[in-house]
Write a structure and sequence with these properties.
Layout: H1 9-26, H2 30-36, H3 41-49, H4 70-81, H5 89-103, H6 106-118, E1 123-126, E2 142-146, E3 149-160, E4 167-173, E5 182-188, E6 194-199, E7 210-221, E8 225-226, H7 232-268, E9 270-271, E10 274-275, H8 280-308, H9 314-338, H10 349-357, H11 367-377
Parallel strand pairs: 1-4
Antiparallel strand pairs: 2-3, 3-7, 4-5, 5-8, 6-7, 9-10
This protein binds flavin-adenine dinucleotide (FAD).
Flavin-adenine dinucleotide binds at residues 91, 124-128, 133-134, 158-160, 202, 205, 210, 359, 362-363, 365-366, 368-369, 372.
Length: 380
């Protein structure tokens, strides 16, 4: 296995703390949360109290102020190691918080960030609507300016942390202009007319709450507009590369874990009087996966450093997102096959990893949309 050169002693120390958190606070309870369809709010508060949320937030707003994506990446990797697909920490810390830190006013930062660091204010981002997902320009949720408020009407769907969220960044149309008419507005728990649909019944990610959200003429103070009116599309394009990188981190962590689990299995399971790992086909499969995991890790680590250097471009983020998530789907399937019938049984972790992996090539932009983006960057 190649050494990962991107980490120093501080990162290794942080990995131990993150590992301890997931081993103690998450792994023993995750099966129960799968049945409940969500994780408890107290888990978020524990994560916050131990410094595991919103790592990049400045100290003046209660954060650790580490402008280094390797820390959240380590946290996400450790989450993947215990197969904890439930807590939507990544969406909160690495997708929602960066909108506020990058384009929020000082007043907005003071209002929202301390709670987001502490885990008492849980974040979500609502782009997708029942009628449109890939095509953000077709967003129909409206926000009409009325004095010093915006009145939001419309609905969103498939929103991660939808049940738990206290703060939702809603992408809404404030003008007809296809790209220049989108704005980001923060809707908060308890605002009149803001309603949540049921917790959606998914095939995987069973412990993660995903919901439809309804906005029935929700009056949002103009102070909740994030950034400039009409610049929403630009902000989305600026933030989506990091969102895609987080998904790639999850993908590579998952394939590593699936590989380890499968290695153990093919060594101990026997058929025809020998371990199944000793058949040439199994050895080839494991060898191919071992190679692909190294390729994925090197590419991903380079992208993490590019993000740290503010150099990660949208097209490279799209590459790492589609390639690692397609690899994840492929690896899960091969690992399940190597488990034979046991792989299809819920008590074997590979079965859950196989189902949980399937969404990775869909959310955060589908594989097809990623390739469209890359194709366009090639001038085609
Ligand atoms: C578990 C889960 C969590 C999610 N969390 C969130 C969240 O927190 N916030 C949020 O806003 N959204 C979230 N989503 C939504 C997700 O981002 C969308 O489902 C995704 O972007 C695809 O949109 P869609 O489902 O409308 O599919 P569609 O856009 O209808 O696409 C359907 C198919 O058509 C293909 N297609 C579409 N356009 C093209 C094209 N131009 N060229 C080629 N093929 C094309 C797609 O690739 C796909 O295969 C989540 C989804 C899931 C399942």
């Amino acid at each position: 296995m190649l050494t990962r050169a991107i980490f120093n002693d501080e990162h290794h120390l942080y990995r131990s703390a993150a590992r301890e958190f997931f081993d103690r606070e998450v792994a023993p309870f995750h099966d129960g949360w799968e049945t409940q369809g969500t994780v408890p709010r107290e888990l978020w508060e524990k994560a916050g109290a131990q410094g595991h949320l919103a790592h990049t937030v400045a100290e003046e707003y209660g954060g650790a102020g580490v402008d280094d994506f390797r820390f959240p990446a380590i946290f996400t990797e450790e989450q993947g190691r215990v197969l904890a697909s439930g807590p939507g920490f990544g969406v909160h810390s690495d997708i929602v918080v960066p909108y506020i830190t990058s384009i929020g006013t000082a007043e907005q930062k003071r209002r929202w960030l301390p709670g987001m660091v502490a885990g008492t204010t849980i974040g979500a981002v609502a782009m997708t609507e029942p009628g449109t997902g890939s095509d953000l320009v077709a967003i129909r949720t409206r926000a009409v300016k009325d004095g010093d408020t915006y009145v939001i009407s419309g609905s969103k769907t498939f929103i991660t942390n939808g049940q738990l969220a206290d703060l939702v960044i809603v992408v809404a149309r404030t003008a007809e202009d296809p790209h220049g008419g989108l704005s980001l507005l923060v809707v908060e728990r308890g605002m009149e007319g803001f309603e949540r649909g049921r917790n959606l019944d998914k095939i995987g990610l069973k412990a993660q709450d995903t919901s439809e959200l309804f906005f029935n003429d929700v009056r949002v103070p103009a102070q909740n507009l994030l950034g400039q009116e009409g610049a929403g599309f630009v902000y989305l394009m600026q933030n989506l590369p990091q969102e895609r990188l987080v998904i790639a981190v999850m993908a590579v962590a998952a394939v590593r874990r699936a590989f380890e689990i499968t290695m153990d299995y093919v060594k101990q399971r026997t058929a025809f009087g020998r371990p199944i790992g000793s058949f040439q086909n199994s050895r080839m499969a494991m060898a191919e996966m071992a190679t692909e995991i190294e390729i994925a890790q090197v590419f991903l680590d380079r992208c993490i450093m590019e993000l740290n250097e503010k150099q990660l471009t949208a097209d490279v983020a799209a590459m790492v997102k589609w390639w690692t998530t397609e690899l994840q789907v492929k690896v899960m399937d091969r690992c399940l096959q190597l488990h034979g019938g046991y792989g299809y049984m819920k008590e074997y972790p590979i079965s859950r990893m196989w189902v949980d992996s399937r969404v990775q090539t869909i959310y955060g932009g589908t594989t097809e949309i990623m390739k469209e983006l890359i194709g366009r960057s090639l001038g085609l």
